[in-house]
């Protein structure tokens, strides 16, 4: 009899704002952003094996297993800890790929946190976050599992508590290259820094949004629609957009009005990741 799979949460995130404040000596963009973790995302299951092989058994169109961040994260943890065990991995993909809501980074973080528990490698969150940073700038946010204010190139993280809001998150069925956005000559790169204590949603913006809307009419059209219902903004470098609601019912009504080809879902903002709630439950039972 096959043992039922245990599915670990891999939640999405939103950049409630994104300011580009300059570049460092290495040429990397310096940012300020507020990462809001939500209670909706992918799910990943792991089965520990005595063989050292890492096998991703769920196929993603256009993504070879060896380039998937899930596999890279598992191998990075394995190598860092000299773990002799391996695993079979399944992915239940709900988040749109290339949407700017952290799907790949979250998948990597869930893999690090879950396998650290299952392989009993006993690394701290700080150690896992350090491994994660080599995989992607957003991975440490998901590893630490807190809604947070981030600065620098994403490595300076301050956990924060935000009032719970309901978010309508929509993917306009187009893909945007982050590299192209950050290399574009028209991208603003000199926004003044803000103090976290002075943060207000309405006093911030996404510095990538104007450029992306000019280059991608689908994003601009959908943003105009969302703004008819609630304060709305693009997350990260896109393509996903989000609208902020106080009540789920209003978000549901707005979702019904959107074009059928758009992938939309409703999520609640949380201050602690569902991944860490799940881990806490695993360690106490």
User: From N to C, what is the helix and strand string?
Assistant: EEEHEHHHEEEHHHEEHEH
- Note the main sheet: 10 strands, mixed
Q: Mean pLDDT, as a whole number?
A: 94
Residue runs with pLDDT of under 50 for 5 or more positions: none
Helix content: 25-40%
- Name the structural class: alpha+beta
Strands, count: 10
Alpha plus pi helix count: 9
- Termini separation comes to 24 Å
What oligomeric state do these chains adopt? Answer: single chain
Shape: globular
Strand content: 25-35%
Your description of this structure?
With 285 residues, the chain is of the alpha+beta class. The chain contains nine helices and ten strands. Helix 1 (69-81) runs parallel beside helix 2 (103-118), helix 2 (103-118) crosses helix 3 (125-133) and helix 6 packs across helix 7 (217-227). The two termini are 24 Å apart.
List its salient traits.
single chain; alpha+beta; 10 strands; 28% strand
In short, what is this structure?
By secondary structure, the protein is an alpha+beta fold. It has helices spanning 69-81, 103-118, 125-133, 139-144, 178-183, 209-215, 217-227, 248-256, 274-284; strands at residues 7-23, 29-49, 54-56, 86-92, 148-152, 156-159, 166-171, 232-234, 241-245, 263-270.
């Amino acid at each position: 009899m096959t043992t039922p799979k245990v599915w670990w949460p891999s939640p999405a995130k939103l950049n409630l704002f994104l300011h580009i404040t300059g570049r460092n000596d290495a040429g990397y963009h310096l940012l300020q952003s507020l990462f809001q973790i939500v209670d909706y995302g992918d799910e990943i299951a792991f089965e520990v094996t005595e063989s050292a092989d890492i096998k991703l058994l769920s196929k993603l169109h256009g993504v070879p297993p060896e380039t998937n961040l899930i596999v890279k994260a598992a191998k990075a943890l394995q190598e860092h800890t000299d773990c002799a065990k391996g695993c079979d991995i399944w992915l239940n993909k709900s988040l749109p790929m290339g949407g700017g809501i952290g799907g790949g980074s979250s998948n990597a973080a869930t893999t690090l946190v879950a396998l650290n528990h299952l392989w009993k490698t006993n690394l701290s969150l700080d150690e896992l976050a350090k491994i994660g940073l080599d995989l992607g700038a957003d991975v440490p946010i998901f590893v630490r599992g807190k809604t947070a204010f981030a600065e620098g190139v994403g490595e300076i993280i301050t956990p924060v508590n935000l009032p719970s809001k309901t978010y309508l998150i929509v993917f306009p069925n187009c893909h945007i290259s982050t590299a192209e956005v950050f290399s574009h000559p028209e991208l603003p790169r000199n926004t003044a820094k803000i103090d976290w204590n002075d943060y207000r949603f309405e006093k911030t913006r996404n510095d990538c949004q104007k450029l992306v809307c000019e280059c991608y009419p689908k994003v601009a059209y959908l943003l105009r629609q969302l703004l008819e219902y609630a304060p709305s903004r693009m997350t990260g470098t896109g393509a996903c957009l989000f609208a902020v609601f106080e009540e789920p019912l209003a978000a549901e009504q707005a979702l019904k009005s959107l074009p059928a080809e758009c992938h939309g879902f409703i999520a609640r903002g949380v201050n602690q990741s569902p991944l860490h709630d799940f881990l806490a439950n695993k360690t106490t039972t």
